[in-house]
Task: structure prediction
Amino acid sequence: MQYRRARKKTTLQLTSLLDLLFLMIFVSLLQSKDIPSLAELRQAQASPPATAPAPKATPVQRPTMAFVEATFHFHPTPNNPNIAKGTYKMHGQFHRETRLLELGGVTWIDRPENYDMVPLRGVIEVGEEKFTGRIEFPGCEQFTLTRTDQSGRTEFSGRWEGVYICSQGETGLVLTIE
Result:
């Protein structure tokens, strides 16, 4: 039994020595740091530096894609006066690098009988005055739109007017991008 007590005492002494060593290292590290005094801290709070560093200019990063809301209004044209009128809401996204705008129908505002919503997928030219592409729907082909009003919150917002071709023939289109 005495052997065990001696061993516990040695272990206890070793643990205490290690704790003391860590404490000494910690105090030594604290002393080597340049810690300001309380008076220096109060003075720094009372008087700001004479010249503040100039803020760094960071370039403004626009997101690569933008969410788009639009209203699709179709109507007769002089070449095809018997087309019905209709209107629906669209949602989609604009890809800034490729200038691709993709829109899909969401909800009808005014639906004529036997008409369905059609999706638009096309490119807005760099001058932002032409929007051309395809209608990816059975019996449909291309569309061509020109911007007639540039109001709105984005570089592609506004009123776009033109025509699209589907099985009913040439159809007038007014696309208002919010």
In short: The chain is about 20% helix and 40% strand. The radius of gyration is 36 Å.
